[in-house]
């Protein structure tokens, strides 16, 4: 063996070992990632927003006439009976104050009415005297007629005069009543608000409850002057409670009557079951917390649980209903955080033999957290969550603890 061969046998293994060591030292480090196993399970797609409870049929009792409202003694929670419970009492408005000329005219009218009444009373007395004389004359003529002293014609004339004077007395009485009424009207024109204070008479208008239920809120409690149409009391049946939630119009078009709703964050130990009863056809503009104009639509939900389960709920309470648009008990699903766009389709990184493999997938329904896998993955495979720019096809992976 020559010296050159000996040198080669010495240096070649040493160079190979050095190259392997350098390759091992400078090889790319494994990327630490979070992995999640693709499984089958339930999946539900829903929309939710803040809502509030309200009595289904709420009645606002208003003042039927303007006037002075007596203090309302009812309080929120009191029971009322339809057409029996007096909600409020209103004394009709006082007459307006009279100026000097109108007051003088009114006093003159009172004097004229008093004089007309006195004249009518005199006419009544005169008619009474005429009737008494006619009746006495009739009795005398009847006595003479029985003895055939007077003719039948004289008897008929006496009876006619008696009937005529009796009718005249009735006419005078009617005229007296007319004059008395005119006198009362004339005096009423002089009535002032002060003239009625302190009297026990109250020509109040009683306002009755239109339905049976409970007082939800007293809008006007204190005594004072109210106008016609002023809201006084809100009445409703707390057993007929519903939930209204205003959804974005883009979400509301996906909601249909009959869909299941889950009422959460209402204060109870567990969510309540509900069902969508109505999607209102009229939208409205609402300014969001960020100052953005949003088109909203009211969705009305009925509570399906027994009254005992939510008896502490009342009108105007805050809840968070979640309306289920689609659900399935057994679907293949993947976390939405594992998906990313690869051209025009969705894709994931699958961990195989500690290496990343790019896999195109087709997804169906998704709820913001998970997505339904239509094709591209199998149950049991593990995918990379939140893949960053360091993850690429073929990269060595290391699962985080």
Short structural description:
The chain has 401 residues and is an alpha+beta fold.
Topology (SSEs and partners):
Elements: H1 3-26, E1 31-37, E2 39-48, E3 51-55, E4 59-62, E5 67-69, E6 79-80, E7 86-92, H2 100-146, H3 152-188, H4 193-196, E8 205-208, E9 213-218, E10 224-226, E11 231-236, E12 241-248, H5 249-252, E13 260-264, E14 272-287, E15 293-303, E16 318-335, E17 340-342, E18 345-352, E19 355-366, E20 370-375, E21 382-385, E22 397-399
Parallel strand pairs: 1-22
Antiparallel strand pairs: 1-21, 2-16, 3-12, 3-16, 4-11, 5-7, 5-10, 6-9, 7-8, 9-11, 12-15, 13-14, 13-16, 14-15, 16-20, 17-18, 18-19, 19-20
Describe the structure.
- The protein has 4 domains: 28-41 and 330-399, Beta Barrel (conserved putative lor/sdh protein from methanococcus maripaludis s2 fold), CATH 2.40.420.20; 47-55 and 239-328, Beta Barrel (Elongation Factor Tu (Ef-tu), domain 3); 59-94 and 199-236, RNA polymerase II/Efflux pump adaptor protein, barrel-sandwich hybrid domain (OB fold (Dihydrolipoamide Acetyltransferase, E2P)); 100-191.
- Helices cover 29% and strands 38% of the residues.
- The protein has helices at 3-26, 100-146, 152-188, 193-196, 249-252; strands spanning 31-37, 39-48, 51-55, 59-62, 67-69, 79-80, 86-92, 205-208, 213-218, 224-226, 231-236, 241-248, 260-264, 272-287, 293-303, 318-335, 340-342, 345-352, 355-366, 370-375, 382-385, 397-399.
- The strands form 4 sheets. It has a 6-stranded antiparallel barrel. It has a 4-stranded antiparallel β-sheet with strand order 4-11-9-6, with no helix packed on it.
- The chain starts with a helix and ends with a strand.
């Amino acid at each position: 063996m020559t010296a050159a061969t000996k040198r080669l046998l010495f240096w070649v293994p040493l160079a190979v070992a050095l190259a392997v060591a350098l390759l091992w030292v400078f090889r790319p480090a494994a990327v630490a990632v979070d992995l999640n196993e693709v499984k089958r399970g339930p999946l539900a797609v829903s929309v939710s927003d803040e809502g509030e409870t309200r009595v289904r049929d709420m009645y606002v009792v208003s003042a039927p006439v303007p006037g002075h409202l007596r203090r309302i003694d009812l309080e929120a929670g009191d029971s009322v009976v339809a057409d029996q419970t007096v909600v409020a009492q209103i004394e009709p408005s006082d007459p307006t104050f009279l100026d000097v000329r109108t007051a003088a005219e009114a006093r003159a009218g009172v004097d004229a009415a008093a004089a007309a009444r006195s004249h009518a009373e005199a006419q009544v007395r005169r008619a009474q005297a005429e009737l008494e004389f006619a009746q006495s004359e009739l009795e005398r003529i009847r006595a003479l007629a029985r003895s055939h002293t007077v003719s039948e014609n004289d008897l008929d004339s006496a009876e006619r005069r008696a009937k005529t004077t009796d009718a005249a007395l009735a006419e005078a009485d009617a005229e007296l009543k007319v004059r008395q009424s005119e006198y009362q009207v004339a005096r009423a024109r002089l009535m002032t608000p002060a003239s009625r204070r302190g009297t026990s008479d109250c020509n109040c208008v009683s306002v009755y409850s239109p339905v049976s239920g409970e007082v939800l809120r007293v809008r006007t409690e204190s005594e004072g002057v109210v106008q016609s149409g002023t809201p006084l009391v809100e009445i409703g049946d707390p057993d007929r409670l519903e939930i209204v939630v205003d959804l974005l119009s883009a979400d509301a078009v996906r909601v249909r009557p009959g869909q299941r709703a889950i009422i959460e964050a209402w204060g109870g130990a567990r969510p309540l079951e509900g069902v969508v009863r109505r999607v209102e056809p009229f939208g409205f503009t609402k300014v969001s917390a960020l100052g953005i104009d949003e088109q909203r639509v009211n969705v009305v939900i009925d509570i399906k649980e027994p009254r005992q389960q939510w008896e502490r709920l009342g009108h105007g309470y805050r809840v968070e209903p979640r309306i289920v648009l689609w659900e399935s008990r057994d679907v293949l699903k993947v976390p939405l955080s594992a998906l990313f766009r690869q051209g025009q389709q969705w894709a994931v990184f699958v961990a195989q033999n500690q290496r990343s493999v790019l896999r195109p997938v087709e997804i169906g329904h998704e709820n913001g957290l998970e997505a339904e896998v239509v094709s591209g993955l199998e149950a049991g495979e593990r995918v990379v969550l939140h893949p960053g720019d360091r993850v690429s096809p073929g990269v060595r992976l290391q699962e985080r603890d």
